[in-house]
Structure formats: C-alpha cells, structure tokens
C-alpha cells in the first residue's frame, strides 16, 4: 500500500492525515476522506521551539503509522503546513528536521517532502475538486485571508499577529470584550452581560482585577481568544454589546476579502469565498453578518470549505508523488 501524509501544524493542535495515493479523485471521494487522522499537540515552532516541534511531529507520525498499520516503506510523500513558518531560513530548518524524522522512522530515501504555510494548505483543502480559483478567510485565535486565481498565483491579506493585526479574530473579540467591561464600569459604555460572564469565568470579583491580569499576568493570546465564546453566548442571549463586537469582527474579515479583490483583478462576484476557523464555526451571528457583507458588496459566492487543512496538505503531498 502506498500512502501520503498531510500535516496541519498549528499553535493549538496538530492534525496528521494518512491518505492512500489512489484515494484522490477529481470528482471527490465517496468514503470518509479523513478517517485516518491522528491529533496531537501544537507544533508551531515559534511557540514550542524547533526541537520540540520535531519531537512532537515525529511522535505523532509514528503514532499514526502504528494506529493504521502503515509501514515506513508505504510512505511516498509528506507535506506539512506550519503556523509561523514563512521565511526561507525557517523552511530550510524545518526541512532539515524532517529529513531527520524520515531517517529515524526508516522512510524510503525517495520519499518526497514539502512545506507550506498553514493558510495555503487550508486554501487547498477548502477548494472543491476541479475548482482552481477561490478565497479562504480564516478566523480562529488569529485571522488572515488567502486566495488563488486560475493562473495559480497566490494572494494574501492579514497574518500580522495579534499586536499589528488579527482583526476579526478570537483574540480581538476577546480583547474587545474586556474593553467593553471596563467601559461599562466607567459608565463610558453600555451595560453588558459580558461583565458578569467573563469576570466569573476568570474568578475575578471586580473589573479592576483586569489591570493585573493584562499587564502583570500577560495572558497568552490563545487565552484571550477563549473569551470569544462568552461573547457568542451573550449575543445569543440578546446582548447588544456582544452582538456589535461580533458584527465589527465580521466587517473586519470582510475587509480581508476586499483587499484580495484589489490585489487580484481576476476575482469577481462569482468567486468562491470560503471560511474556516473556530470563530466561523461557533458564531452564527458573525458568520451570517459576513455572508451578508459578501453578498451585498458583490465580493463572491459564499461556500462551505470542501475539506480540512490537513486534507489540503495531503493533496499537496499527492502532487509530489510520481
């Protein structure tokens, strides 16, 4: 049996998908296309370090091989999408580490390897078979957008991180929620259900405890992003402040699509626009507002993503098999 491996290495978790080389079809698949999947810890090298990244990826691949009875000689190609990897020197370091993984797992010396950004594998996974043009908007802990035209050129927007960017992301939604609490306390903003919900979640008795939390504790961005779920819950309960935070995030994500249209004149009002990420998955208010924006601004046709980022990585690995 001949297999390829697609890896989606994120800052929260890592997905590793094993696919038979003949399982890809221009018409899609009839079987569960992601049944041979294993999930592991985060492998963003800027979060866990390159050495730990290598250890975790090697362990996850080995676990998947054992789980699905895949032999080292069965692996024809591996493609990996990693968050935070973009510079040439980083890609070279990752490639060197994968060569070590291949050697230590006894892969064939003819096994192919390729590395891509996490956004690019997500785009490739989102595009349906025989569709070669589209835009993918990503909103999870961070946010960005990526698109490709029929010529194969790739265009990007966002991805600047939580200090310079990440508008419309879980982190920004969480920060806006915290700001709404202090504004309500100061009587500079409306009262909101978020005050009780988030202070209770953080086990704080008073809004002033947020000062130490932000400036002394300095929570990681994924911790702030977790607060987004309280915004979604408050919006579901009719809280205007929470709803407005989600609507503003949807508008920011729409700006990503508009920027890609400016960068690529080939995009038009029928270009597929797809979404991925936990914020789109769990917030109907944000998603519906985003859909309305796309339609009213004639930025494309909203569609569900075809498959996962790990599938996109596996597809890229398949393209490297002769």
Short description:
The chain is α/β, with parallel strands linked by helices and 322 residues long. It has helices spanning 45-48, 50-67, 88-104, 118-126, 161-164, 170-186, 193-201, 209-217, 221-225, 228-236, 240-263, 278-282, 284-296, 309-319; strands at residues 3-9, 13-20, 37-41, 75-82, 112-117, 134-139, 143-148, 154-158, 272-276, 301-302. It has 2 domains: 3-129 and 306-319, ATPase, nucleotide binding domain (Nucleotidyltransferase, domain 5), CATH 3.30.420; 157-302, Nucleotidyltransferase, domain 5, CATH 3.30.420.
Please describe what this structure looks like:
- By secondary structure, the chain is of the alpha/beta class.
- The protein has two domains: 3-129 and 306-319, ATPase, nucleotide binding domain (Nucleotidyltransferase, domain 5, 2-Layer Sandwich); 157-302, ATPase, nucleotide binding domain (Nucleotidyltransferase, domain 5), CATH 3.30.420.
- 48% of the residues lie in helices and 18% in strands.
- A five-stranded mixed beta sheet has the order 3-2-1-4-5. Strands 8-7-6-9-10 form a five-stranded mixed beta sheet, with helices on both faces.
- It is globular, with a radius of gyration of 21 Å.
- It comes from Salipaludibacillus aurantiacus.
- Pfam families: BcrAD_BadFG (PF01869).
- Residues 5-317 form the ATPase BadF/BadG/BcrA/BcrD type domain.
- This is BadF-type ATPase.
């Amino acid at each position: 049996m001949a297999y390829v491996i697609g890896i989606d290495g994120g800052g929260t978790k890592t997905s590793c998908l094993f696919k038979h080389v003949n399982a890809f079809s221009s018409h899609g698949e009839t079987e569960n296309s992601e049944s041979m999947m294993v999930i592991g810890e985060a492998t963003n090298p800027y979060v866990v370090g390159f050495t730990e990244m290598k250890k975790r990826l090697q362990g996850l691949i080995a676990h998947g091989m054992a789980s699905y009875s895949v032999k080292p000689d069965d692996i024809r190609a591996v493609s990996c999408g990693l968050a935070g990897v973009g510079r040439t020197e980083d890609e070279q370091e990752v490639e060197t580490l994968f060569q070590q993984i291949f050697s230590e797992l006894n892969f064939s010396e003819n096994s192919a390897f390729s590395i891509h950004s996490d956004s690019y594998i997500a785009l490739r996974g989102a595009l349906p078979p025989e569709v070669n043009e589209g835009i993918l908007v990503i909103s999870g802990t961070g946010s960005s957008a990526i698109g490709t035209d029929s010529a194969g050129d790739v265009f990007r927007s966002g991805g600047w991180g939580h200090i310079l960017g990440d508008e419309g992301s879980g982190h920004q939604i969480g920060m806006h929620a915290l700001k709404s609490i202090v504004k309500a306390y100061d009587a500079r903003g409306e009262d909101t259900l978020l005050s009780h919900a988030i202070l209770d979640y953080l086990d704080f008795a008073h809004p002033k405890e947020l000062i130490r939390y932000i400036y002394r504790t300095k929570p990681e961005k994924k911790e702030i992003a977790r607060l987004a779920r309280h915004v979604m819950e408050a919006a579901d309960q009719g809280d205007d402040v929470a709803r407005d935070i989600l609507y503003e995030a949807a508008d920011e994500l729409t700006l990503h699509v508009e920027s890609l249209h400016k960068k690529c004149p080939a995009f038009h009002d029928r270009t597929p626009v797809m979404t991925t990420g936990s914020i789109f998955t769990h917030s109907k208010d944000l998603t519906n507002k985003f859909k309305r924006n796309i339609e009213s601004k004639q930025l494309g046709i909203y569609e569900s993503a075809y498959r996962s980022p790990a599938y996109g990585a596996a597809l890229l690995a398949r393209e490297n098999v002769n």
